[in-house]
Amino acid sequence: MQTQDFEQIRQQTAQAVREVLEAAHLSAGDIFVIGCSSSEVLGEQIGTHTSMDVAPYLFEGAQSVLKPAGIFLAAQCCEHLNRALVIEQECLEHYGFDQVNAIPQPNHAGGAFGTIAYQSFDHPVLVEDIQAKAKAGIDIGGTLIGMHIHPVVVPLRISMDMIGKAHIICARYRPKYIGGSRAIYDEKLM
Question: Residue 147 gets which letter from DSSP?
Fold first, then answer.
């Protein structure tokens, strides 16, 4: 891939994050989870062509939208770290998560996106679990992020369905419906 292709991936990532934020109505202090296969973004099978070249563009695209909004990014690592998440220490302290000891690596355990997040955050920490506290997220390339989003997880359709060559699935949280057939629901929360 060429530099202009990577720039397009950065722009696609920013656009996807922006659209999810708009649809999910997140607020400062909320968590946005991203699972990302850099291999899939490049058109390869997940876990086969980890790319430290494309991962910074994905990270920068996401952070260009999330950071100004005051929303915490949780960068999911690969299955070899049991889908642990890289977050800022401020997020850990705000939510009371437990830190674990591992440093993501691109070709061993963690993946390129998790590694870039660890290298790029101001005060990165790794947590095994965010206790399903994320309010929304994007799965880039089939990485399975649903476990990190607060129930009820609902899919979101946005104007795009790919970043690079990877299919994306966007999701958000919505409050549970209770009360049955007599209940009236707040349309803003649906």
Answer: G
Beta strands 31-36 and 72-76 are parallel
Residue whose tokens read 């790319």: 51
Q: What backbone phi and psi angles, to 5 degrees, belong to 171?
A: -150, 160
Question: What is the CATH classification number for the domain harbouring 102?
Answer: 3.40.50.10360
- Per the CB < 8 A criterion, the answer to whether 112 and 6 are in contact is no
Tokens 């607060």 belong to which residue? 150
- pLDDT tens, N- to C-terminus, the chain (190 residues): 666 799 999 999 999 999 999 999 999 999 999 999 998 999 998 878 888 999 999 999 999 999 999 999 999 998 888 899 999 999 999 999 999 999 999 887 889 999 999 999 999 999 999 999 999 999 999 999 999 999 999 999 999 999 999 999 999 999 988 887 788 888 888 7
Structure tokens at 42: 């490049």
What are the φ and ψ backbone dihedral angles of 152, each rounded to 5 degrees?
-95, 130
What pTM does this model have? 0.93
Which residue segment(s) compose the domain that 62 sits in?
3-189
Structural domain count, the chain: 1
